[in-house]
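From: lab user (bench 3)
To: helpdesk
Subject: output format question, protein + adenosine-5'-diphosphate

Hello, I'm new to running complex predictions and I'm not sure whether the block I got back is the full result or only part of it. Here's what I submitted:
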Amino acid sequence: MPSKLMKHILFAASECTPFIKTGGLADVIGSLPEALQQSGETEVSVILPLYHGMPETYRKELTHCADLVVPVGWRNQEAILHTMSRNGVTYYFIDQSFYFGRQSAYGYFDDGERYVFFSRAVIEALPHIEGRDIDILHAHDWQTGLAVAFTRILRPDIKTVFTIHNIQYQGWMTHDAFGDLMNLGPEHFPGFEWKNMINCMKAAVFHADKITTVSPSYAEEIKQPYYGEGLDPLLNERAMDLTGIINGIDTDEYNPMKDPYLYSPFKTSRAKKKQNKTALQKDLCLPVDPEVPVYAAISRLVDQKGFHLLERILEEFLQENVQFILLGTGDYQFEQSFAYLAHRYPNKMAAVLKFSEADARRIYAASDFFIMPSKFEPCGLSQLIALQYKSIPIVRETGGLRDTVQPYDETSGEGNGFSFANYNAHELLYTMRYSLLVYHREELWKPLIQNVNRSRFSWKDSAELYNGLYRELAVT
Ligand code: ADP
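Helpdesk reply: Thanks, we reran it on our side. This is the complete output you should expect:
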């Protein structure tokens, strides 16, 4: 039974493991609530859309909670609120097949309207959330940005926190969407408008009591024009309320000792890691060789992740005695160019062009190095997962990559990865070549891998920082 002193936080988000995942946001929403509850200070409930693609195993655990009528402009959309409990966290799902009865989460012409609906449905669901009243709505990324604005306007008794997981995606709509979809008076238009369009992320940044993003470096970067994607002036105005809190990962879920997807579970044993390597090489029809260094990338294949750099230098790097494994889906141009290289170098490279959790875990476990040369990176979870699976990250020094990967210094013996500063293909190539040199020199490799084994990225410290923020809001 939650104590009366506990704050009740409602997380609103568009994805959450294990129900639906397209990227790191799902990992965060799937693990932070539990970590917050473990502190004993907060009770967290989570509200999500019910997508068609949610696996049946979870779907059958749902129970009916309430019928909702959600105003979307001149229409009243009916929806059902379902609930379920998992590992002590209560989840709510908005079931509305017109908007969410589709195979994927995003990528539809009416995404704007779909998440206006969802954000408004969150407000309609509030009276039905079980237990105590909600003290704070904590919304994540543009899809739930309008839930912050609606709460501020329609339920001012509830405080709001908005977390920016990626400022590149802002939820733009033409300005007539305000009159068509929002059911608000014209006096509220300026809070939603940005550059003569409706912008869901701007609306959230404008209305939220507190704004966070997912690493201290990214919190600084997005106040500059290069990283701010046009919102930097507003973020500078709100700088007093903006903080960066680094993401953690669920170290129980991402645990190479207990991971059911692995060929051979391991903790720090190099021999067992090599068993994962050879088994994967066999599966991917690469030459089976436990000694050859394996480089990997697991990612959305988009500009943000630095694939232009990799595309530029990979063929040159493949002339070394190495193997490279790519797992990803995304832009057609990247899919084609990596598929072409894999076809040209079948003994050196495999390109697996799909989204597969099982493949991802096996590649993290099998690889020696993990490449992430991002142009920008709010936090990045992949490099943290890679460290858990003893795959050494090679990253560009930006955002959360800068905050979590310390470049290896062979003189002091410090550092848990490799990094380079400028968005430049040859800086990446030289850094990859240096990593190869370290791989082959036991006296350099050993201290590096010891540092990797010591790296810890659990949620504990970050959950405490979020609790601090919630505490601050409780007294204002
Ligand atoms: P982002 O959220 O920007 O995509 P992150 O590094 O924060 O990047 O998180 C990416 C998450 O998605 C990680 O858990 C990663 O393992 C996973 N992922 C990315 N691409 C794939 C893929 N093709 N198959 C399986 N998992 C993937």
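A quick orientation on your result: The mean pLDDT is 96. Let us know if anything else is unclear.
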